[in-house]
Amino acid sequence: MIVSYENIHVILGGKKILNGVSILAEEGRITGIIGPNGCGKSTLVKTTFGICPYTQGDIMLNQESIKRYSPKKLASRIGYVGQDVACAFDFSVFDVVSMGLYARADKSRAAKEVVEEALEELQIAQFRDRNILSLSGGERKMVFIARTMVQNTGILILDEPTNHLDIRHQLFLLEFLRKSGKTILIVLHDLRLAAHYCDKIYLLCEGQVAAEGNPLEAMSRDQINRVFGISGNAFANQEGQRDFSLF
């Protein structure tokens, strides 16, 4: 499955936040969105679910406008985890992850089996009976990601999923996503993680796409300096893996 944002414009509080942004998240690949604070990264992904309405353009899911999708049908196609890990009610972790079953299209497997599998995959089974309010921000983030896995969608949209996570869990999560085979659209602040794990990068600046391509192309020294005002670039190390370095 693919999701594409075509000429998206967003105006909030009389201010233009996005000005003609077009992004394609390709099937089975990790597509990253990077850029400085306030450039419109989170706003863009929120347009998918009507959290931030767009005034112009369209969002296509497998070449069909998402306007044709009911909220439940859209949730059966796209899983979403935002930056916020707040939770107002004292549900157990098992209950929170189980909420993903509501939108799951495939009902062939036992609900408990599906939830237990997601808990094991994300290595949070030890929290299954814990109150969600008792967990740290990073632990809650993993719970919400497990909930999206229960939805069994072909596409995952993740806004700063590594936020609140220690470095071990950041690497575990991104490696897990890489091996999932799903279409991933991910907002990241860590440029090293973006360079290493993303197949394609969109660099946003002041509500527009400033550069796009593989990390070596989109995160060149000129582009990084122009957008972030720092000296650095993505490069291929001696092992042929992509990395990012500041100068």
Verbal overview:
- The structure is a single chain.
- The protein is of the alpha/beta class and 247 residues long.
- The chain has helices spanning 41-47, 71-75, 93-98, 111-121, 137-151, 167-180, 191-197, 215-218, 221-228; strands at residues 3-12, 15-25, 30-34, 56-61, 64-65, 78-81, 155-159, 183-187, 200-205, 208-213, 232-236, 242-246.
- α6 (167-180) links the parallel β7 and β8.
- α4 (111-121) packs across α5.
- The longest helix has 15 residues, at 137-151.
- The N and C termini lie far apart (39 Å).
- The model has no long low-confidence stretch (mean pLDDT 95).
Tally the beta strands: 12
Strand content: 25-35%
Q: Could you name the ranges where pLDDT drops below 50 across 5 or more consecutive residues?
A: none
What is the ordering of alpha helices and beta strands? EEEHEEHEHHHEHEHEEHHEE
In spatial order, strands of the major sheet run: 6-7-8-3-9-10
Ends apart, CA distance between termini? 39 Å
Instruction: Report helical residue fraction.
Output: 25-40%
The description of the largest β-sheet is: 6 strands, mixed
Overall pLDDT: 95
**What best-fitting shape do the alpha-carbon axes yield?**
globular
Gyration radius (Cα, Å) is: 18 Å
